[in-house]
Every structure is written in structure tokens, then in C-alpha cells.
């Protein structure tokens, strides 16, 4: 097991064992764009991680896990303090697991499995005994886990470059976007439907939801969230959040 700090370098591909575990608590960390020859399961025990992909934005809220298949370029950005566990699996162990990046619910069983796996020694024998059973159960739990809508597809059209230049900035309303890029609402709608599968309004609402979860998970106040996401009041933000998640922000945090 490696306990990683912000100044350490770590390459899971440099080890021979079929499973490599990693544990860390970091603050305000940016991994930079990279990829692995192994599949990676990244689990946040506390805090929130934003994962940038080639044409998607992925959010990893607390107590959830992201499955990142081998060879997928990604960048993990952590704000404030993030306590996480990670396991890296060789290709032979990844057959039957999702082929695309996804965020999954972490069952009580999977949560219990990840701690001993992430903290196991690098020379652990994963083919026999206790750790073979842990690995088998873990693979089954990943495969059966419920996926959550924490991925936001990003449009590729060059006219929308400015829209994506600052990931933390609230996307403008449709009327303002029309003026910014010199395109009609119908044209913008066609672009987003073709490249994201959503209308612009749907895409903007999903962005707001994911950003709301990120802000809440990094301990921003309700008023700060409402202001940053363009709501006229705290109550309007609460109503928006509950209409999508079924919970108020306070209930979701608990």
C-alpha cells in the first residue's frame, strides 16, 4: 500500500502485482492529464473530486466511486480536503467491468472491501486466501453497482470554446449565449442535441446540479451555492436541488 501525499509521485503500472492499492488525503491537488495501463476504482471517503475527460466532465461526490477503464486519459482535481482510496487492476481482472467511465453507488459491502484492499501490501498474494475472496467480491460489487448521472458530455463545436474555458463559471442563459457566439437558439439547440444528447437548457441544469454537489461537498454555505449558481434566493436553490435529487441540500449532505 502507498500512502500518497501531494508531493509524492506514484505509478501503479510500475508494479507487478495484479492489484495495487493507494490511500491518501489531499487538499487543492491537480493530477494533470494522465492515463494508466490498469483500470482504476477511485473512491472518495470525504470531499469531492472533479474528473476531466476528453469530452466529458465527471464529478465524484463523497461516498461514491468512479470506475476509470485502462487507457482513458483523465485529470483529477481536488478542492479543499479529499480523503480517498484507489485500487488499480490489471487488464485480465477488468473483463466484465464497465467499458466506459462511470460513477457508482458504493454499497456497505464494497465500502468494507475497499479499505483492506487499498491498504494491502504491494506483494500481497491475490490468488489465494482472504485477499482472493476480497478481490472476487469487489469485482462483483463493481459490476452490479447502480450507476449515477454524474457525467456531463461537453460540446465540441469551436463556437462554444469560451463556454468551456472556465469550468467553474456558470454557463450563461440561452439568450446571452446567442449574443456571445452569434448563433440562433435553434442552431445552439441543434449543436447540443447532436453533441451531448441534451438541449442547452437541460445541459445547463445538469451543470448546475453537478456544480451544486461539488460546492456542497466542499463545505460552501447554502447562500454561497445559491449565489454562485445564479439563483435569486436560497429557497429557489433548495427547490431546484430537491426537484432533481428528491432531497434538500441538507438532507443530501447527511
TrEMBL record:
GO terms assigned for molecular function: DNA-binding transcription factor activity; sequence-specific DNA binding
Keyword hit for Cell inner membrane: no
PROSITE patterns xrefs: HTH_ARAC_FAMILY_2
Keyword Flavoprotein: no
Domain of life: Bacteria
Database matches in InterPro entries: AraC-bd (IPR003313), Homeodomain-like_sf (IPR009057), HTH_AraC (IPR018060), RmlC_Cupin_sf (IPR011051)
Protein keywords: DNA-binding, Transcription, Transcription regulation
Lineage: Bacteria, Pseudomonadati, Pseudomonadota, Gammaproteobacteria, Pseudomonadales
Pfam families linked: AraC_binding, HTH_18
Domain HTH araC/xylS-type: 158-254
Protein name, UniProt field: AraC family transcriptional regulator
Amino acid at each position: 500500500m502507498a500512502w500518497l501525499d501531494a508531493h509524492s509521485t506514484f505509478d501503479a503500472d510500475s508494479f507487478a502485482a495484479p492489484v495495487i492499492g493507494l490511500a491518501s488525503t489531499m487538499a487543492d491537488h491537480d493530477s494533470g492529464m494522465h492515463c494508466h495501463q490498469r483500470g482504476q476504482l477511485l473512491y472518495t471517503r470525504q470531499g469531492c473530486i472533479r474528473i476531466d475527460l476528453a469530452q466529458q466532465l465527471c464529478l465524484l461526490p463523497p461516498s461514491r466511486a468512479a470506475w476509470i477503464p485502462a487507457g482513458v486519459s483523465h485529470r483529477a482535481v481536488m478542492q479543499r480536503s479529499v480523503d480517498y482510496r484507489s485500487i488499480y487492476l490489471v487488464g485480465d481482472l477488468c473483463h466484465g467491468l464497465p467499458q466506459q467511465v462511470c460513477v457508482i453507488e458504493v454499497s456497505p459491502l464494497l465500502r468494507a472491501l475497499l479499505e483492506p484492499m487499498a491498504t494491502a501490501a504491494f506483494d500481497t498474494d491475490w490468488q489465494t486466501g482472504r485477499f482472493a475472496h476480497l478481490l472476487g467480491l469487489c469485482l462483483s460489487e463493481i459490476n452490479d453497482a447502480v450507476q449515477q448521472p454524474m457525467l456531463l458530455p461537453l460540446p465540441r463545436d469551436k463556437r462554444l470554446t469560451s463556454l468551456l474555458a472556465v469550468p467553474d463559471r456558470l454557463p450563461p442563459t440561452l439568450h446571452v449565449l446567442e449574443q456571445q457566439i452569434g448563433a440562433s437558439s435553434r442552431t445552439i439547440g441543434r449543436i447540443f442535441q447532436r453533441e451531448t444528447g441534451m438541449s442547452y437548457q437541460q445541459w445547463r441544469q445538469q451543470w448546475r446540479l453537478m456544480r451544486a454537489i461539488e460546492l456542497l461537498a466542499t463545505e460552501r454555505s447554502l447562500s454561497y451555492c445559491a449565489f454562485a449558481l445564479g439563483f435569486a434566493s436560497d429557497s429557489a436553490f433548495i427547490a431546484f436541488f430537491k426537484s432533481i435529487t428528491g432531497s434538500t441540500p441538507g438532507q443530501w449532505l447527511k
